[in-house]
Amino acid sequence: MPDKKSENSQSSLTQRLHHVYAQIPDGERKVADVVLKSPGDLALCTASELADLTGVSNATVSRLFRRLGYLNYDEARYAARQLRAQGSPLYLFSRPEVPRSRADFLSKLVQQEIGTVEASLATLNPMVVREVAEYLAKASRIRFAGFRNSRFLADYATATLCQFRRDVERMNHPGQTLAEGVAGLAAGDAVVIIGLRRRPAYFKDFVKACAATGASVVLIADNSIREAPAYATCNISCNVDTPLLVDSYLGAMAIVRALMLATIDELGNAGRNYLFGIETLHEDLVELE
Questions:
Q1: How would you class 156 by CB atoms within 10 Å of its CB: exposed for 0-12, middle for 13-18, buried for 19 or more?
Q2: How far, in Å, CA of 165 to CA of 141, rounded?
Q3: In which band, very low, low, confident or very high, does the pLDDT at 266 lie, cut at 50, 70 and 90?
Q4: C-alpha 196: how far from its chain's center?
Q5: In terms of CB atoms within 10 Å, which of 2, 120, 180, 289 comes out highest?
Q6: Which helix (H) or strand (E) holds 242?
Q7: Are the beta carbons of 107 and 242 closer than 8 angstroms?
Q8: pLDDT given at position 100
Q9: Is the separation of the CB atoms in 11 and 218 below 8 Å?
């Protein structure tokens, strides 16, 4: 996996923010929240504009970015421009009122769901997808983890990939404590953690504990996450926000599906041969229709 501290990492700027987020004063945290919500916009925003947007002073903005290790705001802005150039810009969504009629509601819902998928896939860097696919194809063991509404995505990823290679399991399965799952990880393993809002309170500590085992950690989360990305080897962002009462997970599902398809492609003949063996057993056991 790539070095967590690599300056070429797509998430190096945001990871610096996550590292200091718990310790910074409220004024600087307001700036951090705006940048973390839409990091690509930093490339287009002056220090004064960012200060006005967050309701803090220019000095507060400067202190935050010096705290992150930059000489000044302009150096951070240049870094953001480099990160923006590596992938697609983040989309910005308006929040229209929910239509009253059923036909209008369904029409608007289709547009919103398509937008969620497009927004999520637009932020994916093809090079990152290929890197993750290589990690998942070559890892000694793979574990998927997800809590609350993220759980079904971890289940889907596990059920998909276990058809193409050995040693693919859900990590936090029923009857298992978190500690028991983490203790089973080691260097050479890969753990994919899906963390969509609202995450359990222990989520950051869970990610940190997984990383401490030496296993490679791929974290898939929406842009509300804080601190936990600092401990991941690779961070992938998805969009879940909609004008409606509950979040949409279609964007997250599209990202997980893209990663699984890329991994299956990376496994090549070995994956197809493994699937052939499973299908033969299905026939022998008369398990499926």
A1: middle
A2: 9
A3: very high
A4: 8
A5: 120
A6: none
A7: no
A8: 57
A9: no
Beta bridge partners of 218: 192, 234
Q: Which of 75, 182, 288 is nearest to 280 (CA)?
A: 288
The model carries a pTM of 0.72
Q: Are 247 and 196 in contact (CB under 8 A)?
A: yes
C-alpha distances out from residue 97 to 55, 108, 246, Å: 27, 10, 15
C-alpha dihedral sign at 251, 255, 260, 266: positive
What angle in degrees, to the nearest 10, is found between the helix axes of 250-285 and 102-122?
80
**Residue 268, Ramachandran bin (φ over 0: left; ψ between -120 and 50: alpha; else beta):** left
Residue type, 239: N
Write out the two tokens for 125: 């860097």
Domains of the chain: 12-86 (1.10.10.10), 102-279 (3.40.50.10490)
Say which residue the tokens 């890329």 belong to: 262
